[in-house]
Amino acid sequence: MWRGLYTAATGMITEARRTDVIANNLSNAATTGFKKDTAVHKDFENMLLKRVYDHDDGNGGVQSSGLLGTGSGDITKIKGFKVDQQNAPTIGKLGLGSYTDEIAVDHSQGSFESTSNPFDLAIAGDGFFAIQTPQGIRYTRNGAFFRNQAGTLQDIRGYNLLDRQGNAITIPPDVSNSRVTINVDGSIFVNGDPLTVQIEQNQIPVQIQVVQFDNRLAVQKQGDNLFYAVNGAQPQIATGEIMQGMLEKSNVEIVREMVELIHNHRLYEANAKAVTTQDTMLDNSVNQVGRLGS
Q1: What is residue 68's DSSP assignment?
Q2: Residue 7 φ then ψ, to 5°
Q3: How many H-runs (helices) and E-runs (strands) does the chain carry?
Q4: Rounded CA gap, 113 and 251, in Å?
Q5: What CA–CA distance (Å, rounded) separates 88 from 112?
Q6: Coil, helix or strand at residue 195
Q7: If you write DSSP's letter for every residue of 7-62 in order, what string do you get?
Q8: Quick check: 217 pLDDT over 80?
Q9: What is the pLDDT of residues 96-121, one digit of tens each?
Q10: How confident is the model at residue 53 (pLDDT cuts 50, 70, 90)?
Q11: What is the pTM of this model?
């Protein structure tokens, strides 16, 4: 019964964590470029149960000892089978509960929304925008950028959008927004001419830095819709294309998440009921079965 309490409790903890993940997804259903999380659960290793009181008496017979008494073949006679001399009878496998193995990020494509704002950008396919933050370079799918008073492209937190050289992107102040064109490869054109930046003695065309990683585990969520690279993962030029005047919506499906939330609530209630039932059985064992008659 003690083991049953722990097994049911692990189920409750697991479902509580899944509820937190679903709640976070629902709260970000309207967040631009948000990628939903999925709680991946795994079972603890099953335990193989055998009858511990059956053993070989050394003379080819089977004895039962301990709480079941002594004598030859007490249990096997009742069950009607002969115990193998090497191994006690196998009862079966016992599950020991579950745990949250990983909170995985679903990087599937979200739908597009047209805004007609030339600095609203979406990525069709794989890739992240690179932005400069106080903690270093971070990556995001949120392409809602704007042009500040100095002409620098920034996100809503004031973080600079980076080009392929790792520099901030600045549009000349005398150019209207309607005269800025951004191609699918991130190249920026102003009044029909490529926007360039001088590096050493060369004029280099400005391209928005859009990168991707070979392994989905190479980036993890930081919060604020930002990702960071882990274990020294190196970004590569992304295969995705930039869509100007578009924003990528969250890939959260509200109806699906609500169904998962209801299902999760029922599983939590079932585990809670199992805990209550076994607690009642323990109470009866201690206070009723073990009570001495007066």
Answers
A1: G
A2: -65, -45
A3: 3, 24
A4: 12
A5: 63
A6: coil
A7: HHHHHHHHHHHHHHHHHHHHHTTTSTT---EEEEEEEPPPEEEE-TTEEE-SSS-E
A8: yes
A9: 677 777 889 999 999 999 998 999 99
A10: low
A11: 0.76
- Phi and psi at 163, nearest 5°, equal -95, -175
C-alpha torsion sign, points 114, 117, 120, 125: positive
- Contact indicator for 162, 132 with CB cutoff of 8 Å: yes
CA dihedral over 236, 240, 244, 245, signed as positive or negative:
negative
- Specify the long-range contacts of residues 259-267, CB closer than 8 Å, at least 24 apart: 260/18, 260/22, 261/19, 261/22, 261/23, 261/26, 264/15, 264/18, 264/19, 264/22, 265/19, 267/11, 267/15
Contact present, 207 and 164 (Cβ < 8 Å): yes
- Token output for 289: 């079965």
Q: How confident is the model at residue 87 (pLDDT cuts 50, 70, 90)?
A: low
With CA atoms as reference, report the closest residue to 239 among 263, 262, 200, 210: 210
